[in-house]
Amino acid sequence: MLQQALVNGVVLGALFALLGVGLTLVYGVMDVPNFAQAGVVTLGAYIMVTLHQAAHWPFFLAVAGGVLAAGLISVATERFAYRFVRTRPLAAPAVALGLLLILDNSALELWGGDHVSLTPPYGAGLIQLGGMTVPAIGVALVLTAAVSMLLLWLLLTRTGIGRAIRAVSQNPEAAATLGIELERQYVTAFFISGLLAGLAAFAYAPTYAVFPYMADGVIFDGFVVVILGGLGNVWGAALGGILLGLVESLSAVYVSAAYQTAIGFVVLLLVIVLRPAGLFATTARRVA
Amino acid sequence: MQARTTAKTIAGAALGIAMTALLATRPAAAQDKTVTMGAILPLSGLFSTLGPPERDAMQMAVEKINAGGGFEVGGQKYKLALKVLDDESTAATVGIAAFRQLVQVDKVPVLVLADNTRNYASLLQRFPLPLLNILDSTYPSILDVDKHVFLLRSDTPAYVPGAVWYLANVLHKKRIAWIGSAADPYSTGIETWVKKAATEYGVEIVADVNYPPGTTNFSPFIQTAMAAKPDAIYLGGVTQEVLPVAKQLFQAGIRDLPVVHNSGATPTQAKQIIGEDLYNDVMATNYDFAGSLPETSDNPATKTFYKDFLARYKEYPDDLTMWAYDAPYVLIGAMRKAGSVTDREKIYQAMLTQKVPPETISGWMPAEGGKLFHGRDAQTLSEGVRWCTATKTIAPAFLYFMDGLKVTDQKIIENGCGG
After folding, report:
1. Do B387 and B272 share a structural domain?
2. What angle do CA A268, A271, A275 make, to 5 degrees?
């Protein structure tokens, strides 16, 4: 029972981490609570379904198309909306919520309200792990999250693009003085965040269904993760995701399944009270 | 000469205009007027599997009625029109606006509803009109919402206990794990009757979990349910709630326990929601208990409806579509008996006592004196169906009628998939 709950928690946590890392990356460079990320996840999932089922693309090619499209949609949100409120942070949450409504309702208009399915070739697979049965889609979710975060870490720490993003995150004025083009870093951060949203769609959609509001609930868990990990802290978000997944899974089994989400928010409140900068906060603001 | 020709032309034109005007203003009694039937259905949102087939079935009936010359009330010929508004599965806001539009602005004589009937209670008190519900069998019954509410289907107690009886006596399962939706009154109503039936038939509810609204990851609930070592799973809720849980049960490796529900999920919906690659395997252990199905009916008219609907919409018609198809005939029957197409009170009174309209296809079990409604509830046989993996469709497994918690008129079909 405990082992199964831990495995479930890690799978759930991997999803939260995937969402949280994308959110914290954008928050790190632009101070925007990007609620619209849920809409990007949804559109990415629909594009995958359409490419696979209507255009008959091979599954993984359709996924690649959906992930790339999610990246571009995320960039569009920055170009057509967020950049106009960059100097007005109080307006950003309202813009983010408005964008979420636009993206969700675009999905409703384009694909209708019916639930549809994105089923990977391994959708029925089961993996035996130390006496436990783990769904193959759960393993795929954990692997997707792990590989994505490793690649993101390499990008942020070992490449010029990553160094530029980190510099903008820590001090945009100083970064600009050093010749770093701020606009390009904003666009890059949103593109990476969109790719992560697309990967979240690929990992999340097969477990439930694709519909216009599919990520609106789970995105709040993503924000809990961001706050747990410390705003703008990528590794904090990853660890926060796993922590929240474990807390929700264990509390569902040992306290009450009906209150699993509520217990996650109780943990959030405790962190806000006891460690306001997040569990993994450092003295310097960072996105790596 | 030219003047005379011009005069003739003018006179001819004037005659033509006069004739046209005369034809246009001929007595109203000689023309077919139109009666509009209003409906509020969930065409999008969480319950969107339910609304579109109901709309399509009603539209089929309306077209058939009009193709046959319409209908006559008080010596006047009428055509029937259908106006459907989408409540977007949010009855409390969009549904209320739709009610006002249809009842106050369009002044429909009768309103057809699918779900969330309690949401309209105060409006019904202010604007009373006959309200035909073709779906909402939540418990406690919606018939207590207002005296104007009619239920064009059997209520929850008429089919849920039969599912538990089947589990106990046919599948010989005695340990049920319940997984339901805490926020859906349909699910909580089913739960109530599953528990009552379990007590009656000697079945133990070994796990009772209800997930909160918005849940998409059911693994903790599945884990809690499975920890009690059940020999069957009972899922509460509508199609879009039940099928994702069934899918995650399968994905978690639970593939040999019967999964029972009252969703009325069609093969089309299963394929769409679960996915083409998985749905046949996921549904293999599923049993669904609700109203009787058009496919299994002996009535030629019902069989024709089944074939026509399937051919036209490429979707398997279920019990709901059959009841929806009958709704326009029930309305016309009441208006004929009332002698009015506008007087809502007269139509309501006529609805209470009208007999089963002969054109209907649902196989209604008449009340005393051949009346359609038992009080305000129209009833049919209930039916349990099982999944057939060879044909990727459903087949009858159990036909029954409930007298309280006693199963009557039972017929167990052993070889439904093969027959």
Report:
1. yes
2. 155
**Average pLDDT for chain A:** 89
Mean pLDDT value of segment B58-65? 98
Contact A116 B273 (CB under 8 A): yes
User: Higher-confidence residue: A215 or B29?
Assistant: A215
Give me the torsion for CA of A171, A172, A173, A178, rounded to 10°: 90
SS3 B271: helix
d(CA B294, CA B363): 9
Residue B2, in any domain of the structure: no
For residue B215, CA distances in Å to A71, A227, B271 come to 27, 22, 21
How many whole angstroms separate alpha carbon B38 and alpha carbon B43?
14
Number of independent structural domains in chain B: 2
Interchain CB distance below 8 Å, A115 and B272: yes
Domain of B291?
A: 157-296+381-412
Nearest CA in chain A to B242: A208
Give dist(CA B191, CA B243) in Å, integer. Answer: 17
CB–CB of A113 and B44 under 8 A?
yes
In a domain, B419, yes or no: no
The answer to which of B123-127, B230-234, B297-301 has the lowest mean pLDDT is B297-301
DSSP B354: P
Residue B140, preceding bond cis, omega within 30 degrees? yes
**ipTM metric:** 0.84
Mean pLDDT confidence for A93-99: 95
Q: Confirm whether B3 is domain-assigned.
A: no
Same domain, B399 and B335: no
Has residue A143 got a pLDDT over 60? yes
Q: B110, B103 in Cβ contact below 8 A?
A: no
What percent of chain B has a predicted confidence (pLDDT) above 70? 92
Q: Contacts of residue A117 in chain B, CB cutoff 8 Å?
A: 272-276, 278
Query: Which residues in chain B have Cβ-Cβ distances shorter than 8 Å to A11?
Result: 219
Does B73 map to a domain? yes
Per-residue pLDDT tens over the stretch B250-289 = 999 999 999 999 998 989 889 999 999 899 999 999 999 9
Q: Residue B24 pLDDT more than 50?
A: no
Contact between A260 and A252 (Cβ < 8 Å): yes
Same domain, B89 and B122: yes
- What domains are defined for chain A? 2-113+125-274 (1.10.3470)
Q: Flag if B223 and A258 touch (Cβ within 8 Å).
A: no
Q: Which residue of A has its CA nearest to B221?
A: A257
Q: Is B373 helix (H, G, I), strand (E, B) or coil?
A: strand
Query: Angle, nearest 10°, between helix axes A260-274 and A218-229?
Result: 30
